[in-house]
Amino acid sequence: MTSPAPKISPFSTDEKIPPLGVGFLLSVLKNNGHTVYFSDEYLKPSRILDSKFLFKNNIDYVGIYSNTICFQGTLMLLEKLKKSRKKGWKGTIMVGGPHTCVNVEDFPEYVDYVVIGEGERTILEIIEGQVNERVITGKKVEDLDILPRPAWEIFSKLPYNWEHYWIKDKPIFTLNTSRGCPFNCTFCSVRNIWGKTYRIMSGKRVFEDVLYLINNYDAKGIYFREDNFTLNKKRVIEFCNLLMENKVNISWICETRVDSLQDLEYVSLMGNSGCKAFYIGFESGSPHMLELMNKQSSTKQILKAFENAHKVKIKTYASLIYGLPHETEEDLLLTNNLLKRQNLILLAEIYLLGFPALNYMIILRKINYMNLKTKMVYCI
Q1: Do domains 20-137 and 162-379 have the same CATH topology?
Q2: How high is the mean pLDDT of the chain?
Q3: Contact criterion met (CB below 8 Å) for 239 and 208
Q4: CATH number given to 162-379
């Protein structure tokens, strides 16, 4: 199960796409002979735990995916499972997901297993009775090529958002082909969840997954929803060449950093193979803020990245982060001036929202400076 979205959130929870991490777990369990059911409460809350489902289907284990913004929903599901136990259900409760990586102590003691990090190897060990500890750090999958495909046979039947405004046709499938990040941006929690080592699926595996989605689900586009699809140049080149050599006509988009887009030949290859847009996290146009964020990139690289993308007709979507401590109006002006030099199709303004614990206070201060509307959000 996923956890339902909160009724009130500091950011949008409207995007409904397949939870790929859960999809890998579903496939791992199915491939090892287990019967699995899936309820995406984030997509659409159900009353499955209020029914006799657990009893009628002889459910032995319930696994819940928990992230911080949905944690109250996680607690609600756990309370329902607790009530089911009082009615005689004798199953085991497992919890995983990003929130376990930052606040593992938040989970009630009656939760049998709390998995921190990756779960593909650990979930089988739990079910096979090989785990004695309640809180477990999941074993990393070093070679991502050995992972099964996410459970597309389940996801494809659900009413997810299969469209994207950068690609006119549908369905658009999301893929996640890497884990971890070697960078250490101060605002980002990716390293806490996946680790600092960058692990990847090979270009051949990525190509095979794309081909599988085309042949089995008539995919018209792919969105690589991962922190830095382009970081390993060798595997992206392999992927692009395989698409072109096999005359696979598929539109794709990805997320990336500006320092990965400095080589025009590399960017051109991606465009020729079907890349339609980059989501680029350049975060600020102020050298001072880039240094505070530890972005390890420069305004010169930002300009070069956008210039290269536009030369080969790849659209650009930029994300900016406002509200970091020590940000000044001069920093905002520098960002605004840099934005005027870009040809963006979309701009995502992200306002810093920290989660030091679940009991937090948000102080909101609005600024309208040089027609740049922004929100400064600090957490105490």
Answers
A1: no
A2: 89
A3: no
A4: 3.20.20.70
